[in-house]
């Protein structure tokens, strides 16, 4: 029997995800020991803010959420606590039975462990698995009031608009489509609600065991090589490219598909812009994702060699493997999930009912009599030569995501198989998120999109920041990088040495305080979980305790509370020697200035002079190949 609060106010939710969900991983431990090439050590003082509380899950278990879905669930828990209401387990539309997923799972349990979710938040809000029978009947009769809040809805909206209706009706519904239902930035007096968001995202949402097991398997396969690895997410999705007007960077059918989606967004009011824009100008101002070829050149400029292990994340890469060929040519160990766990992937989806495939019917071949009849109807003599026979159509030309564009101007509705594959992408993204958060370094092809929606890379970067601010997470400024690429656009593969030094300096700065300040300035106003500092972190005693504030007085860096006494003060640190073996640094390996001693492999372009002296002594025309 379901027991509700005294007021018997119930909040049930339907989450509508318009794009494939992006998955997030969290760990219940106080902090995680991370293996990194080189880290910004002053950031070691930042730790996840936690209160001692009883956790149902054991230490080192993986906890998860999804891109828009995760942000929505975190907001819902905060709203339920704000309204003192009971929350019903949300329903995720992309993983319902109508999408032809396995009968073993319900909507929420397709990805998450319901029991862990309920128990982990038992001290914060009451959560139940379903409505009581009388409210279920009222829901079927459409007698329950439903709200569709915006992603930037304020707490006052819920207190003044939703709460009075909730008291009258005892139950209301929320339909969420914007990837959230509560504004990202809350007043300082509501800092506890921000920490509640972090507890939900980083501790309460947990993958079902099958996803955890396979995710750990992929990570362990990387660890068995005794080499660090990079996770890279291209960010090349059709929605992103259409929203920012990047169609002209592609060709032929890809351009048409992007433009069709952009026209839909304009019609629905999602964007207020022209259909046709200069994609090259959009790329130069940093609006478009970095191409895999450009990312490969950047990684080479940093100093990663050809044998570096790279994990390519993302359930969708628009354009397919063709756009990854330059990256694969530069790094021979660049692989995705199918290389590491191809045999295990089908086990995640569970037993599914058979969906009959559409039997392809090729164009009928005309017999001799039909050809003669067409010839006789060809018109008066002198007759032209008969038209050439119709080219036979093959099955691959009529099926798939592009088959419709050669025959009709309207994209057809998704088939049952398409709906099932959309649900599968949630699982693939979950695995990619696990590996990306556990990786020794992460490089985003696209983040800070400015659309107001959280994206895959932002969620990874936010979680890696929560676990350890000193982790090697690149936060590049795409506008600056495109200025660099425009300098060498005619000869990308033979840049001058000064160009390499400038790129390396920019990317190293993106890992440290400069990158954190920029991330807080651009990402946090639209997605709190992409930069959960300082609300969800604390600081151990450290010399580096200065603060950086924005023009509006908001803290962009620093300002964390002191960590509790029970938290460890000195995390273990690791480094990678030139033999590419992990070795533990004893006594923190500190130098005179307090920074850890980290030996880097000598890069191909290094000489006896330091990088600083090279930048000063050599002009822009110097070329090491001359």
UniProtKB/TrEMBL annotation:
<keyword id="KW-0808">Transferase</keyword>
<dbReference type="GO" id="GO:0016757">
    <property type="term" value="F:glycosyltransferase activity"/>
</dbReference>
<keyword id="KW-0472">Membrane</keyword>
<keyword id="KW-1133">Transmembrane helix</keyword>
<feature type="compositionally biased region" description="Acidic residues">
    <location>
        <begin position="617"/>
        <end position="626"/>
    </location>
</feature>
<dbReference type="GO" id="GO:0005794">
    <property type="term" value="C:Golgi apparatus"/>
</dbReference>
<comment type="similarity">
    <text>Belongs to the glycosyltransferase GT106 family.</text>
</comment>
<keyword id="KW-0328">Glycosyltransferase</keyword>
<protein>
    <recommendedName>
        <fullName>O-fucosyltransferase family protein</fullName>
    </recommendedName>
</protein>
<dbReference type="GO" id="GO:0006004">
    <property type="term" value="P:fucose metabolic process"/>
</dbReference>
<dbReference type="InterPro" id="IPR019378">
    <property type="entry name" value="GDP-Fuc_O-FucTrfase"/>
</dbReference>
<keyword id="KW-0812">Transmembrane</keyword>
<dbReference type="GO" id="GO:0009507">
    <property type="term" value="C:chloroplast"/>
</dbReference>
<keyword id="KW-0294">Fucose metabolism</keyword>
<feature type="compositionally biased region" description="Polar residues">
    <location>
        <begin position="355"/>
        <end position="364"/>
    </location>
</feature>
<keyword id="KW-0735">Signal-anchor</keyword>
<dbReference type="Pfam" id="PF10250">
    <property type="entry name" value="O-FucT"/>
</dbReference>
<feature type="compositionally biased region" description="Basic and acidic residues">
    <location>
        <begin position="599"/>
        <end position="608"/>
    </location>
</feature>
<keyword id="KW-0325">Glycoprotein</keyword>
<keyword id="KW-0119">Carbohydrate metabolism</keyword>
<feature type="compositionally biased region" description="Basic and acidic residues">
    <location>
        <begin position="366"/>
        <end position="376"/>
    </location>
</feature>
<feature type="region of interest" description="Disordered">
    <location>
        <begin position="355"/>
        <end position="391"/>
    </location>
</feature>
<feature type="region of interest" description="Disordered">
    <location>
        <begin position="585"/>
        <end position="626"/>
    </location>
</feature>
<dbReference type="GO" id="GO:0016020">
    <property type="term" value="C:membrane"/>
</dbReference>
<comment type="pathway">
    <text>Glycan metabolism.</text>
</comment>
<feature type="compositionally biased region" description="Pro residues">
    <location>
        <begin position="381"/>
        <end position="391"/>
    </location>
</feature>
